[in-house]
Amino acid sequence: MSENPSPEAVARGYFDAVQAASRAQLRALLADDAELVSINAGFMKGAEAIADYYEENFFGAGARLRPKTGPLIVHGDVVAVEVQARSESGKVSWLSDFFTVRGGLIQQLNVYYGPVLEGGGTQA
Hints:
Elements: H1 7-20, H2 23-29, E1 30-38, E2 42-45, H3 47-57, E3 65-69, E4 73-75, E5 78-87, E6 92-102, E7 105-117
Parallel strand pairs: 1-7
Antiparallel strand pairs: 1-2, 3-5, 4-5, 5-6, 6-7
Helix pairs in contact: 1-2, 2-3
């Protein structure tokens, strides 16, 4: 019997999926009843709905994101990380992502947005 991946490994896998713009990779990390909470998506429930949202909004030409993560902070089944997400158009968003991982799958992802900067900008 194989052991489930750690919450940190699952969170890293999420960023790999976003970097690759892979709906299949992302979907494989989501529990069937996963929840997404963010200012852009609002509240979304279900792995298929979340994967569809990412495919429509972040995985298409011109919309792909290049996430750069800070240190992942793990506390039990929760992973917190600050993210700098650069779009192909040159906009940079500062985010904080909070993952709840159970059984090797993302059960909940809360995304908190900071400023969106043209051309990148730097963090103070």
